[in-house]
UniProtKB/TrEMBL annotation:
This is Bifunctional alpha,alpha-trehalose-phosphate synthase (UDP-forming)/trehalose-phosphatase. Coiled coil: none annotated. In the C-terminal section; belongs to the trehalose phosphatase family.
Amino acid sequence: MSRLLVVSNRLPVTVGAAQGEAIVTPSMGGLSTGLRGPFERSQGLWIGWPGDLSGLDDAGRATVMKELQALRTLPVELTADELRSYYEDFANGVLWPVFHYLLDRIPLHSGGWEMYRHVNAKFAAAVAAQYRPGDTIWVHDYQLLLLPGMLREQLPGARIGFFLHIPFPASEVFRMLPWREDVLRGMLGADLIGFHTPSYARNFASAVVRLLGHEPVVDELAVAGRKVRFRAFPMGIDTETFTAPSPPHAGEFQPRPGEHLLLGVDRLDYTKGIRRRLSAVERVLTRRPDLRGKLRMLQIAVPSRESVTAYQDYRRRVEEIVGAINGRCSSLTDSPPIHYMYRGFPQEQLISLYRAASVMLVTPTRDGMNLVAKEFAASRTDGDGVLVLSEFAGAAEEMPEALHINPFDVDGMAQAIEQAVDMAEGERRSRMAGLRARVLRFDVHRWAEDFLAALADAEIGAPLEPTP
Ligand code: GDG
């Protein structure tokens, strides 16, 4: 079996300290869970940034390196300068807003491109040094868009896959990016390019035709005599984790009797649509006095990218709106309607919240997929609960039984929340059954297997068939 080399910006580990000793803990995100099978079977290697190791003394560093090696991970260390410029300024400061259609978030002088190239080259060198003929390389996400192209130059015969976890925008938006051709050429170094949805794949094809003049034939492109395939591989979740019964302790969360609990779970990110969502909840409270005191919104906002100015601003604006709504809608008898928490929770607690909620609100203005929507459905082993889902989340294409909303339409969102709260049990259950059937069937293991099977099929270096 060919060895799998996974490459992502961040290694799936957390380096910390316990009793003065440096320790490395594997962090089980969706991606590492999905890849665990093929990774273990092929005795693979994961290449990426391990986090900041600068605080470690020599002994701590030696321990960390040994533990990383035992986990079959290879660290690509980044200096503070590299990290700021490549990751914060360019990947999160420029690529993230452009790919999410938020053009007003792009800084006036967008810096970091040179460093982005430099860090991608650093990753390429690290991968090339590990590569053995026959290996399969799988590169992940927008931080490493140039890496497939750089690897193709150094390893012309390698089997290279690339998966984009965020949307690929309409070509009219993508072409605003000053480095658009370089980015496309970088991606086209792969043999197989995966997206969450068919519409992202179409957007990509149209950008390639328009900017580079390569005409796709169905889902294939001919690039410098090579065949590059691109298509949708919608990512799923680890359903086993989310369907397992909650352990009896687990700080089980219980709604108050007769209460409708609305739930939001997001990284605090300006793409997640948290402010308009809260405004919609306020509108419901204003329009429906009968729900006052019976409707509570629990919003978990997980701290994210706190050193990026746009995220600091967004946090301030979210917190202002929480305060303003609670100020306007609280009374002496009822507790404030918005219960806002700026922190992360252990996964088992998250699952017990998914299970306690009457309505889950997933309202991003753009989202590659949104796994929270799928986790909510999988967790509802009781078959109940309503999902209100933005039509701009990739997940919407696979979840037609959710109540779809336009996250820019606050009134429409408020109406959907009312519809969800008033929905009869029979309708709730039949919608949830449809959602669960698909989420449970297309899980993250299947996603990884499908992508790797298509990559194994790729004919490396084969020319494209002529159009009939
Ligand atoms: C990117 C794309 C795409 C959240 N709060 C807690 C917690 N979480 C976990 C959720 C979920 C994950 O974080 C969030 O995943 P999403 O898919 O919703 O969003 P992004 O972080 O923006 O992910 C996205 C994804 O990549 C995969 O390709 O779907 O579109 O933007 O798994 O459960 N986990 C714990 N505590 C929390 O408080 N333990």
